[in-house]
Amino acid sequence: MLLSLRHLLFCAGLSLSLVCAAYPGQAEARRGAHKVAHKVVHAGQTLSLLSASAIVQDAETGEILYGKNARTVTPIASITKLMTAMVVLDADLDLNQVITISGEDMDALRGTHSRLKPGASLSRDELLRLALMSSENRAAAALARTYPGGLATFMNAMNHKAQMLGMNSAHFDDATGLSSANVASAEDLVKMVRAAHRYELIRDYTTTTGHEVHVAGRPLAYHNTNRLVANDSWNIGLSKTGFTNDAGRCLVLQAKLAERQVIIVLLDSWGKLSRIGDANRIRAWMEANARVNSGGAHKAAQEDSDKPAPG
């Protein structure tokens, strides 16, 4: 009986060894994926996010506080509209010029809904506000269509701007983000958010909680697609959301957390509230680390004060 049991254990161990030997690459890939998924640079409390790609950067020093698959190139959906806005503003166009929505501005790719019907007229400024605050696709499309030189020139300007910013993995195919060919990495988008934050109108419009426009004498109320901008406990200087089935739910922010100006990029976050949850997890993580660091500094200062005076 004892001999049989020993034989059985020996066979089980041999089988397990053969399985491990047969799939060493798979085991190594899983270990590597785990390392990439949770690269935490900041000391102290750890951080785990639901977004497939993410990065947190100190906006003032450039220090990367957290990174997760930050170089993975992925569709970015309406985060695109930050680049759209920068290209429009760089051209120094008349923001008071009235633009009429046309059939060309309608989404033929995904069939998304818009309350801006063909024939609706708004100023370029109002279209810019709606594109940034409410992610209004026809507003963004109209801004690109009426750019001097037309759509082709506008797309060239977007990709040129990306190159100038050092967004080496980025490519733009349309002004709305509806195209899955609009791609970038989290590392690219940190650079784009930093650049966009220099524009006063982009800061103002992306953090406006709501706005009403009048189309053909009828009021239309719009709201910000990021609920955090209406949360008084958040100090947000720039915000943009994005969503398509290919891109997942995306969010970029420039905000003050734990007395530090930071840029947050969250990409491909599945689940309606997961990107908001990730933003709150980052905030809690930074605040916890700030308390730990503050406690350490206080302890060191206390130890110094307890030392006897020289002489």
Structure description:
The chain has 311 residues and is of the alpha+beta class. 42% of the residues lie in helices and 21% in strands. It has helices at residues 2-22, 24-37, 80-90, 124-133, 137-145, 150-164, 186-196, 200-206, 274-306; strands at 39-40, 53-58, 64-68, 74-75, 98-100, 121-123, 183-184, 210-215, 218-223, 236-244, 248-257, 260-269. It starts with a helix and ends in a 5-residue tail after the last helix. 39% of the residues are buried.
Shape: globular
Q: How would you classify the helix and strand content by structural class?
A: alpha+beta
> How many individual domains?
1
Main pleated-sheet profile: 6 strands, antiparallel
Please give the CATH class.
Alpha Beta
**Beta content:** 15-25%
Strand order of the largest sheet: 1-3-2-12-11-10
Mean pLDDT: 85
For this structure, the CATH topology is Beta-lactamase
- Tell me the radius of gyration: 25 Å
Count of β-strands: 12
* H-E order: HHEEEEHEEHHHEHHEEEEEH
Number of helices: 9
- Helix proportion of residues, in percent? 40-55%
CATH architecture: 3-Layer(aba) Sandwich
Low-confidence stretches: 1-43, 297-306
Name of the CATH homologous superfamily = DD-peptidase/beta-lactamase superfamily
The span between the termini is 81 Å
Tags for this entry?
single chain; globular; 311 residues; 9 helices; Beta-lactamase; 12 strands; disordered N terminus; two-stranded antiparallel ribbon; alpha+beta
